[in-house]
Amino acid sequence: MEKILLSPPHMSGAEQTYIDKAFATNWIAPLGPNVDQFEQDLAAYNNVEAVAATNTGTAAIHLALKLLNVQPGDTIFCSTFTFIASINPALYEKAVPVFIDAEKDTWGMSPEALQRALEEAAQKGKLPKAIIIVHIYGQSVKMDEIMALANQYNIPVIEDAAESLGSTYKGKKLGTFGEFGIYSFNGNKIITTSGGGALVSNKKTPIHRARFLSTQAREQREYYQHVEAGYNYRLSNILAGIGIAQLQVLEDRIATKRAIFDCYQKGFQDIPNITMMPELADTKSNRWLTTVLIQDADPTEIMNKLSNKGIEARLLWKPLHCQPVFEDCQFYEHIEGAGSVAEALFAQGLCLPSGTQMTEEQQNYVITIMREILAEVSCT
Ligand SMILES: *Cc1c(COP(=O)(O)O)cnc(C)c1O
């Protein structure tokens, strides 16, 4: 039997048309008509002014920090409950991360913890240069509360929406609220270009500069002229072709991901020790991965037992403030002294297979095996 994977790529077939076009015109080099179209399509889909397509989501975050002029020693606030790519670019600039806890309603940045962190930073006269919020597993954070705090202290927000393309908060696309938003098109994301990313903004000027910085900061001259250091961060014209076709099926993929979540929810509704990931009122998650919390059982043990049955599950993100690489970094709990919410999520959570090509049979199989494992684990 084939292994049931967590979230494998799902091509529509139309990708080949755009790849073929690039081949037919021999436009293999990075940049070209597919990149231009992919940027336009992404801007239209998200209703933003400007988009720069990049070779990874991580590169897009790095560019956002460069555009905000982050300097060595600057502080960057970041959600702790995320993948390390959210904050790695801050380390490239020798900036200092401060991690903010998650909250139960969204699993994203806690406005309460952010408020305390900002108050303390203001007292010390060391406000952060940027706040990186992460919409995790497709779920929006409490944008009104977070943006109100950021605006009160006049701190730019970078929205890491790598996992949340197509999700909305009060009808508006995630990634379009802050100074900058970023998306990822890595192989496991809701749509993919095999590898890729995008930086978006409602301001055109910084996106022009992002394109400049991501093409080795080459000045417009007859010869190669460089006044500052740049990067090689642009998306290739072939991969952008995959992106154009993938974007056309994004809404279908979201509908399927949400149906997968609903099916799991139904399958587990009579099991009291399984809690599904919440969805905040007035938000719509793309349900990139169906994730659950499990009481009174060890998720690692369940993951391994699932693996023995040909099912790929995964633990939730280990909070960044618990990572050895960040052991010296400051961390603000959701409620001071009450214990970290992100740590509790990590200790209890599991991501279940959520590939949009899963059959009903496969999904029922995962549900059945989960139920068997839970029955077994809770009577020992
Ligand atoms: C995938 C991911 C990224 C990084 O994207 P890449 O395209 O792999 O560089 C950043 N942040 C989060 C939360 C992600 O899940």
UniProtKB/TrEMBL annotation:
GO terms for molecular function: pyridoxal phosphate binding; transaminase activity. Its cofactor is pyridoxal 5'-phosphate. The modification N6-(pyridoxal phosphate)lysine is found at K189. It comes from the Bacteria. The active site is at K189 (proton acceptor). It holds the Pfam family DegT_DnrJ_EryC1. Keywords: Aminotransferase, Pyridoxal phosphate, Transferase. One of its GO terms (biological process) is polysaccharide biosynthetic process. InterPro entries: DegT/StrS_aminotransferase, PyrdxlP-dep_Trfase, PyrdxlP-dep_Trfase_major, PyrdxlP-dep_Trfase_small. PANTHER family: DTDP-4-AMINO-4,6-DIDEOXYGALACTOSE TRANSAMINASE, TRANSAMINASE. Belongs to the DegT/DnrJ/EryC1 family. This is Aminotransferase class I/II-fold pyridoxal phosphate-dependent enzyme.
